[in-house]
Amino acid sequence: MRFRTVAAAAIFAVGLAGASQAADVNEQEAKDLLGNLTHFLPDDLVKSGFIAVTPTSGHYEITYDLQKFFDKLNVTGFDITGLKPLIALATPLDSGLWNIEGNNAIDVTARSKPGSSPDAEFRYGVASSSFTGVFDPAIHYVRSMDVKGSGITLATKMTDNGVEKNDITIDGINYALSSSSSGEPDKLDLQMIGGLQSFQDKVSSDSATLGEFKIGAIDFKASATKLPLKALNEILRFVSDHKDTKTLSDSESAALKALLRNAMPIADSFEESVSAKDISVTTPLGNGGLQQVGYSFKMAGPANAVNADFGMRAEKLTLASGLVPEDYVAFIPDAAELQMQVPNLNFTALLDVLQQADFSNPEGTPSVDEKLQQAMFPDGTMTINFPKISAASGLYDIEASGSMRGWLNEKDRVALKMTVLARDLDKTISAVQDAAKTEPDLNQLSFGLMMAKGFAKTDPDGRSRWEVNIAEDESVTINGQVIK
Description:
It contains eleven helices and 21 strands. The protein has helices spanning 2-15, 27-37, 43-47, 66-73, 229-241, 250-263, 326-329, 347-356, 368-376, 425-436, 443-455; strands spanning 51-56, 59-64, 78-81, 86-92, 98-112, 120-136, 141-158, 164-181, 188-205, 209-227, 269-283, 286-300, 306-319, 335-345, 381-392, 397-407, 410-423, 457-458, 464-470, 476-478, 481-483.
């Protein structure tokens, strides 16, 4: 729901790009605004009157008539009810900015017509949704946006082979965007935060619950610096203007290259993180859950040497013995973390390749994908760093870090250097040996751990250490000892 609401607001905002920057409200500007709102839509949909703009009381009222939209789509086999028009308002300010706002509720049901297959019913409802923001036509983007929604439901019911229902509810969503000048013309620094409260997905038949998935809350935040929003919008407009063009002319190809050059780099930095808590899964076979899980992504650095960092962490994973063998339950980690980095990505080289590409004759040029790969990785190799890989429970505590290098044209050629640390190794081995008495498959793991212990060194803090080196010729050394 959050993504749909934000997308609708974004499409609305882009449409304001060519409208009046003055506070006057009149019929001509309403027509101009309508033209911008429908610029990216197919002509037959535009002619349907799905979107209408009316000047009234110092602002423009934009109406999205969902009934006309679905009539034009010519949806057969379903009767659709509850299609009420959605309303948004745009108010021009003397400063040249626009205030934008909307407040709507949705309750739409689609039922298959008698005799249709499958026999199905779908319902989508939002008790309340609203957005407010400020749009800047000079950069074709919103400078601020606040989106909220509550009472969200999505329900399906299939009755071809018995009754199967899927009911999704979300108590509320929120999303806020703010921006500030980056210090460069037509570029902004953006900050975004948002969340979702109480997600529940229940799958059931006519007589029993088949499964249930719950999330207590989801939170996200993201930021980008020096985002060339106007340049990106101009690329989108070029693509739209040439959506029916099979081959670009020389002048059009040169224009596209200039637009790509103006948009690079896409951002000076980008960062986002998402976390979810109180996750539970209920099934007839057993239950499971996570107290918290999250991921993060960041790209930063000069355009010719960008680092891409990815991270993921999970805490308090629980699985019932019905989902995994009982002897394995104690080995499920209480916490696990992965940090990964791809360093020195050369986006300047990517731009050079795009500038040399012949967009007017794409079939007559060498593979752009091959050139991009050569530009990004000129020595034919890619390095992945692992700052941290860890897992811990009451029976083990292991952590690793290192790097891996791979050859792009030789899939089996890999070099790896890794440091592995384990705390209380004897305790781990003893637990595995005990479990192997009833789970023979663990005997091989027990044997492997005993061998690993023989190669280990002991750090001052008592942890076992292994320095693992796998060379590109597939030779392996552990703590300086060659493994045959």
